[in-house]
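Below is one record:
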Amino acid sequence: MHAFYERAAGLDAALARVEDLTAHTVIFDVEPLVAYWDSGQEALDRGVARLVTRASQLPELQVVCFATNSMRRPRAVPGVAGLRVVYLASAGKPMRIAPYQAFPRPGVVVGDQIATDGLLARRLGYAFVHYDPPSDEFPAGPRLMRQLGRLVRPVVFGRPRDR
């Protein structure tokens, strides 16, 4: 699998695409897919548990990684037999790729920011599934990054395909 861009309307569509690609690794951006930026510890813990449960139903999946550039962490990372679950806080996306190098391929990054999550996917040679919620839900910083991502997308991925 080579790096490419595809937009997904929501979590169900993103997980369906991960399954279609028979990915062995999926890297989920934490905010806003797992928990919103301003949400508390409970929302983060519930979101991580919910996604691990859903991802564990994908037959080819071996690794689920949660990656965030923030410092927030869940109280516990849930385990599922046969599935490695990793949580990376202060991940340094897209610059730091060493933590992902040993993950099995093919892989998919699911995230909301082309300038961080998309570039991480490109650097790893993974597919990028862009979770694209309405921008009125974004705080100012992520909204600005979203605009930057729109400029970067054609250079990094070419013309997008909608799903």
